[in-house]
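in:
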């Protein structure tokens, strides 16, 4: 089981954010950021990664560029979920609870179930 923080927008939409390392952030970096509505970060990362990836790997500069790209993806893995939480808060979401679940949908379901049992 993983720990998820549950966020809710005033419109009622809920989001679950896993705590810790972000595998999607690591593997997909800029694309992941854009999908998660981290527009500025995603656009900057995409431009930087594309520019660095255009350098030929056979050269010393190209090898250094490849290493920098790897570091960028590692930074996305380490910080991705924190960036997501900050972005949700800036868009008006409030943190409601932290729950354990296997996946984000399960986390939201567990929160709903828990909140209903507390209301009774």
């Amino acid at each position: 089981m993983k720990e998820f923080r549950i966020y809710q927008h005033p419109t009622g939409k809920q989001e679950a954010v896993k705590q810790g390392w972000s595998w999607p952030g690591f593997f997909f970096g800029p694309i992941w950021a854009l999908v998660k509505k981290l527009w500025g970060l995603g656009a900057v990362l995409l431009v930087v990664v594309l520019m660095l990836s255009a350098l030929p790997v056979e050269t010393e500069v190209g090898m250094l560029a490849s290493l920098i790209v790897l570091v960028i993806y590692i930074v996305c893995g380490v910080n991705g979920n924190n960036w997501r939480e900050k972005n949700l808060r800036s868009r008006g979401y409030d943190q409601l609870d932290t729950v354990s679940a296997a996946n984000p949908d399960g986390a939201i379901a567990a929160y709903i179930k828990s909140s209903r049992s507390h209301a009774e």
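note: The first strand starts at residue 2 and ends at 8.
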